Amino acid sequence: MWSARLIFPARNFLSGQPLSARSGLLNSRVPIQCSNIRTGGSRKAPRYGKGSNFQPKTETKIEVETGPVSPSKLWKPLGFTVAFSSACFVGASIWQYENILARRKQQWNWYEEQLVRPRKYGWIRDRLNHVWNGLTEGQKTFYVICFANVLVFLCWRIPMFQSTMVRYFCSNPASRVVCWPMALSMFSHYAPLHLFCNMYVLHSFSSGACASLGKEQFVALYLAGGMVASMASYVYKCVAAKPGLSLGASGAIMTILAYVCSRYPDLKLSIVFMPFFTFSAGTAIKVIMGLDAVGILLGWKLFDHAAHLGGAACGLGYYYWGDKYVWQKREVILRWWHNIRGSGSH
């Protein structure tokens, strides 16, 4: 039960040295798989020799913007965070509306579904449908999110994509592109262990969160939490003048973790590899947030502690006020969408 959002310090990119990436309860050193990393195109990274872990076949030129970040530059990502998060909940409201209509239509058309419509043939397809339909809504949602994360992870393995991956799938307040990386970085993992630990934690809490929120609200909260975590990371890097690239889903996962631990504080949890050691969910979220707060105060650079705290704060805030002031206020959106669908059908 642990997740981590990695910080890749800018100085490692400048020197071309392998980045030290640690995730979860275990450590793993991972060299960045690029043979030519530049800052402003002025400084080359040394080539890897025969004794290195990776020998690139093609050279990839990567520019990493560094330097102090002016507080005035944070207004644009702040506006994007508000707009993106709002769009997530608006989209979730419409998604839920359409799902309710689809279920009602399916109930009325059961005769056509069962007898008139031709059956899907093929043993493999039938078996896959059977397995998929046997999953809970939380499990289905998790596998979709996990698939997106694995797909981005595989893109990191393609040398010709790495310039794009660093620019758009790593959040960096000093970059010329500051908005979309805030969202895309929550699906980005470079180290296999980092990906595994984050997906393990998400799998552990997704079913409980979906059971409480519904899949539509769960996805909206997950995405909005990831955005708030990225924004918190930007603010910390700007105030502390500590530039660096961040990536990982742990900010969004911390949002779900904080919500579930607040919703079910007496739920018993355990640490992976130590199932005999159990503790309450309420205690777990306090300890995790406390460690992240200490990490910020002491300047720990292993994880993006600001992003963790930002995501956790989003989850706690949504538990206490989100349902009343956000989700229960969607009636205006539903009425507006209902009118659009009604006018479009005539």
Task: Offer a quick outline of the entry.
This protein has 346 residues and is mainly alpha-helical.
Describe this structure in words.
This protein is mostly helical and 346 residues long. It has a domain at 71-109 and 133-334: Up-down Bundle (Rhomboid-like fold), CATH 1.20.1540. Helices cover 60% and strands 10% of the residues. The protein has a two-stranded antiparallel sheet. Strands 2-3 form a two-stranded antiparallel sheet. The N and C termini lie far apart (52 Å). Residues 9-58 have low confidence and may be disordered.
Descriptors:
346 residues; mainly alpha; Rhomboid-like fold; two-stranded antiparallel ribbon; globular
- Care to count the β-strands? 8
CATH superfamily of the domain at 71-109 and 133-334: Rhomboid-like
Helix content estimate? 55-70%
Regions with little confidence, pLDDT below 50 for 5+ residues: 9-58
If strands are numbered along the chain, what order do they take across the biggest sheet? 1-6
The name of the CATH topology of the domain at 71-109 and 133-334 is: Rhomboid-like fold
SSE string: EHEEEEHHHHHHHHEHEEHHH
Mean residue pLDDT: 79
User: What's the main sheet like?
Assistant: 2 strands, antiparallel
Tell me what the CATH architecture of the domain at 71-109 and 133-334 is. Answer: Up-down Bundle
Assign the CATH class of the domain at 71-109 and 133-334.
Answer: Mainly Alpha
Structural class: mainly alpha
What is the gyration radius calculated from CA atoms?
A: 22 Å
The dominant shape is globular
What is the number of helical segments per DSSP (H or I, 4+ residues)?
A: 13
Give the termini distance in whole angstroms. Answer: 52 Å
**How large a portion of the residues is in β-strands, by DSSP E?**
5-15%
